[in-house]
Amino acid sequence: MDDQQRKAQLKKTFDTVAxxxxxxxxxxxxxxxxxxxxxxxxxxxxxxxxxxxGTGIAATALAPHLPHGKVTGIDLSEGMLAQARARAQSxxxxxxxxxxxxxxxxxxxxxxxxxxxxxxxxxFLPDMTSLLQHIASKVKPGGQVVACSFTQDSxxxxxxxxxxxxxxxxxxxxxxxWKNICTEEQFHTLYASAGLSDMETQRHDVGYFLNDAEAWxxxxxxxxxxxxxxxxxxxxxxxxxxxxxxxxxxxxxxxxIPLNVGALFASGRVT
Length: 271
Prior knowledge:
Layout: H1 3-17, H2 27-33, H3 36-40, E1 47-51, H4 57-62, E2 70-75, H5 78-90, E3 96-100, E4 113-119, H6 128-137, E5 139-150, H7 158-168, H8 184-193, E6 197-205, E7 208-210, H9 213-222, H10 226-229, H11 234-249, E8 257-259, E9 262-269
Helix pairs in contact: 7-11, 9-11
């Protein structure tokens, strides 16, 4: 798959899942975004670039902490941006502007922004170093560049059960790309290769208990694995869902079904 085909596939995927992305069952996105104002050490006046802004979860978490600044969010998917605009409007946030834009070709002047954030977005590209360098080029010298990913054991054992069962249906899942930056060491290597200094990492638990197995199905359907399930026929999907949600339900404790999710935040400065 060449670069243009990969981008077209990503755009189609996120346009498809936009309606439910970050909704019930996916509170981990919101929980992670709540840590961003502290990770970025915002003063309140910054103009911040939010790369792969998606449905605006990070942007709307950051904007209230910028009373004299603003967030500019970019995303390849118009479907995701439509949800982001609706989210910002529902929260009464007027200091967010959104643009349809390729994160590999950010159409703003160099050194325009005071800081940049990319939540759960770097790992979608094979060349994360070049992407991080490109993002950093839009930030003023001394400004922060923050990115986050999932920790190594996130979604276990739920995702392991899913991948094992989908393979029984003849579907071969691709590697989990977020595992390319799921440790402090991997992030340190990435930030050093991109030429960023004063690198720091933080780890936060953003997991919780699901009320029912259907909430986990929404994670599958709207946040990453829909393309695998869609390879099955309608009859197979119904059978797969019944089988898989039975094994997820078996994980229930007195508090609910555990969803183990960790967020790993990396921060570095532009030299």
